[in-house]
Amino acid sequence: MQRLIPTGEAARPVAFAEVPQPVPEPGEALTKVEAFAPNRGETFLLEHPRPGFLPGKDVAGLVVQAAADGSGPGIGTRIVGHPAQGGWAEYAAVPTHSLAVLPDGIDSVRAAALPLAGITALRLLRTAGSLTGRRVLLTGASGGVGHYVTELAVGAGAELTAVTATPVRGERLAALGAEVVHDVAAARGPFDVVLESTGGPDLPLALSKVRPGGTLIWFGQASRTPATLDFFQLLSGPERVTIQHFHYAGAPYGSDLAALVRLVERGRLHPEVGRTAGWAETAATLVDLRERRIRGKAVLLTGEGR
C-alpha cells in the first residue's frame, strides 16, 4: 500500500512510500482510509521527525477487517477515528475505543475534520465549565479548534470574543456569533474565562483581561514562543486569577467522537474545511497549514491521485 512518510525537508515534509499493510492489534479495526486531516501541530513534528514516526491522527473511512477481539463495528461500516499515528495511508489500524460509526448523512470530508480539533474543543469547554451568560476570550481562534469552540460556546450561551490575525480569518467566527478582534489588546475585558492558545506576549496580555477570580486556560503555543510572566505586573492586574494548563490527549476517544458526530448530524456543529484536495497535494498543504494560510481544517482524499 501507499503511505506518506516524513522527509525532514521544510518545503516537502512528506513523500510517498510503498509499505506493507498494517497488521492490527486484537482491539483494532483495519480501515481503508478515504480522507484524513492534518493538524498544525503535526507540521511541527515533521520538522525533526523522530525515528519511526508515522504521521496521521484524524481519519475517516471504511472498516475492511473487524477487530479480532470482537469489539467495535463490523466489515463495511463507515467510521471516523483517532489513531495514535499512521493515518496518512491507504489503510490504518484504528483502536476500536477511539472510533465512532458514521451515519449516511455525514461524508468522509467533514468526518475527517472532526477528531483532534473537535475532541480538543469538547474537552476544553468541559474544563471551562458552564459558559451560559459568561464572557469568554479565545485567542488563536481561526483554526479548527477555534471554529468548534466558537460554535459550541456561543451555542451554550457564552458572550465570546475571538482573536484572529486578519479580518478574512475571522469572517465565519463573526457569522457564528462571536465578536472578532485582531489583536488581544483590542479585546474588551474583563472576561470570566480566557482560552489562550498562542503563548508568547499574548498570554500575559490575555491574562490582564481576566476578571478578579477568573480563569485562564492555556491550551497551546501556536506562536512557538515561550511566555514570560512578571510577578510585579501581575500585582497591578486582576487578583486571584487561576492559570490552568490543558492538553486534550487521553484515550479512549470514541465517546467524544460519537458526541461530535451527533452534533454534526443534528446541525449544531458545522466543520469548517478551508481546503479539500487529493493526497498528492499533502506536502504543499502541510506547508500552507504550518504558515497559517488555511482557515479551519484541511482534508486530503486518498482516492484522488498521487
From TrEMBL:
Coiled coil: none annotated. Residues 10-300 form the Enoyl reductase (ER) domain. It comes from the Bacteria. InterPro entries: ADH-like_N (IPR013154), ER (IPR020843), GroES-like_sf (IPR011032), Lipid_raft_assoc_Zn_ADH (IPR052585), NAD(P)-bd_dom_sf (IPR036291). This is Zinc-binding dehydrogenase. It comes from Streptomyces aureoversilis.
